[in-house]
From TrEMBL:
It comes from Durio zibethinus (Durian). GO terms for biological process: vesicle-mediated transport. Keywords: Membrane, Transmembrane, Transmembrane helix, Transport. It comes from the Eukaryota. Signal peptide: none annotated. Belongs to the PRA1 family. PANTHER family: PRA1 FAMILY PROTEIN, PRA1 PROTEIN. This is PRA1 family protein.
Amino acid sequence: MDWGNVTAEDLIDALREVDWSSPPRPLSEFFSRFTVPRSYAKWNSRLKCNLYYYRTNYFILIVLILGLGFLRRPVAILAAILTALSIAFLNDSFAGTFSEKVTRTVRQFSPHLAAKMRPPLTPVIRGRPSAKRAIHICGWPRWVFVFIVSSVSFILWYLSCDLLTVLWALAIALLATILHASFRTPNLKARLNTFREEFRAVWRNYSEL
């Protein structure tokens, strides 16, 4: 895959649809080999490849840096967790897995309530879905759930009075992520993983025909 031809919008769509349940890459691989890119095109391709391949590692890195900035501020920690969740809910796989696990847990105590938390069925015409299935979380449309979680996190940020601190922590986390993605040399495993994800995307599109 030529990552130089991948736009930022394509990368965001891929990160939104890809499965995030896979464990992070080992630290021995994450901090293995660093080199300076020889050109802007090489740097652009390397940055996109590493952001996609080490996505789980970068997400954990950002959460840890934000957590270190609020060790003595429990309200800010809760706000950071809710903010991270609201961002994670934008990923289709994470949203579906979260909704399924919550529904299973609720079913053990209240089957009637769990039945209401199921997503609505998509009409099927001639064996095909009539429209692309919308993502629901606990029976609600995803945008409603994300809006509620984001609003609560914003209120907590306001109450903690640490908005400037979180901006500094977020800037440091993003800078660390970009620096690592810029200088970490993509290995063969990263390229093979890219081809595997490409095959899955092609097969998914074929199965929807």
